Amino acid sequence: MGQGQAQGQQSQHWKKIWVGSAGNMVEWFDWFVYASFATYFAGSFFPEGNDTAKLMNTAGIFAVGFFMRPVGGWLLGRVGDRRGRKAALTLTVSLMSASAVLIAVAPTYAVAGYGGVAVLLVARLLQGLSVGGEYAASATYLTEASAPGRRGFASSFQYVSMTAGQILGLGIQIILQRTLTSGELHSWGWRIPFVVGALGAAVIFYLRRNMLETDAYEEEAGEESDAQASERGTIRALLRHKREAFLVIALTMGGTVAYYTYTTYLTKYLSNSAGLPKQTATLVSFCALIVFACLQPLAGALSDRIGRRPLLITFAVGSTFLTVPIMTMLRQAGSFWPALGLSLLALVVVTGYTSINACVKAELFPTGVRSLGVALPYAIANALFGGTAEYVALWFKKSGLESGFYWYVAGCAAVSLVVYLTMRETRDIDLKRVGGTPDGRLDADKVPAS
């Protein structure tokens, strides 16, 4: 291979990573601004009452979006396996754009009573459908689009882009906090980020319409028979890989709870429990997430050298034993710097999971069922654990047992630790051969499983 050809292939790899990541950023911007702006719009959709109760109501709708994710995982995972990763990624961003528009124009309680809640609920259901497919489609796309020895590095950009979406949301929040009064933010300013999200999604739709399909997908699609093609992306094909599907759920459990605790819930925890001003809490999250995003490629590249399991085990051990002291000290953090230091410590631990979880899951399944295999089990785990993390945290707080949530997070990490200790290494798996024979049956010598 000549130097020019090698450079051309490298350029194509980066183009695929860029387009996949940019779309992922907008998707997760729309998903996360709901959580980060909930403290401002909670009062707009519900009658007067306890502030924590209002947050629980909006957190409940936030959790409902997660319960649509398994549906989106199945539907869009099937599209990704049958029609291509490009088709699935284009569809997810279309759904997200529609949901952002709905939230931006949703009527308040004063205007339409609980009609505004109904619009909010429909929007969150659409977002759940979209994100349920987006995670797997982007994880599969980024993993397949990368060079074999660089999958950990390339797929880490999924969480770089996810975190960049949240950083963008928090950045807009900081700007609005400094340019609008509190009354303006609570009245109408909270709608601005959803308008921005809708416009961004429209731009990404155009980019994804022109993106390149992955070589792994095109090669297998071109070689398979009609009978094999009909099995692509079906539940029947996924059931041949039940062990891998359960492995995805188990290894996701601890990671998703910890991630949502230290990202989407952190700002509310710092303001609602630690007593920091909203502006300070937002700035803490913003700065911590910038460092967190920068850590992802470094950890992903490290996994390409030493393997995936060491990073996963490090995360699980750290989360199991450090969550309770970190959360306890965060509650006592009375200013910016102590809160930032503790938040960074927590996110460094979580990096062991976030930087490589996309490629680990994609490496478990063959091409014909990879998108669905990642999407559905991951979405189920997120519906059960990630989507409910904030609601569980607020329930413990309202019950006067807030420290119980810290132990809940640590317990979920401990369960995942058992899985990480017993699973096989996936770093050197050949994506075009993983899963076994051409008819889709499992080959025990090639399947990385617990």
Automatic annotation (TrEMBL):
Membrane topology term: Multi-pass membrane protein
Top-level lineage group: Bacteria
Keyword Nucleotide-binding (UniProt): no
Residues in coiled coil: none
Domain Major facilitator superfamily (MFS) profile, first and last residues per copy: 16-427
Alphabetic keyword roster: Cell membrane, Membrane, Symport, Transmembrane, Transmembrane helix, Transport
GO molecular function: symporter activity
Cited InterPro entries: H+-coupled_symporters (IPR051084), MFS (IPR011701), MFS_dom (IPR020846), MFS_trans_sf (IPR036259), Sugar_transporter_CS (IPR005829)
Stretches that traverse the bilayer: 28-46, 58-76, 188-207, 245-262, 282-299, 311-330, 336-360, 372-393, 405-423
Localization: Cell membrane
The keyword Chloroplast belongs to this UniProt entry's keyword annotation: no
GO cellular component: plasma membrane
Function: May be a proton symporter involved in the uptake of osmolytes such as proline and glycine betaine.
Family (UniProt): Belongs to the major facilitator superfamily. Metabolite:H+ Symporter (MHS) family (TC 2.A.1.6) family.
Name of this chain's protein: Putative proline/betaine transporter
UniProt lineage: Bacteria, Bacillati, Actinomycetota, Actinomycetes, Kitasatosporales
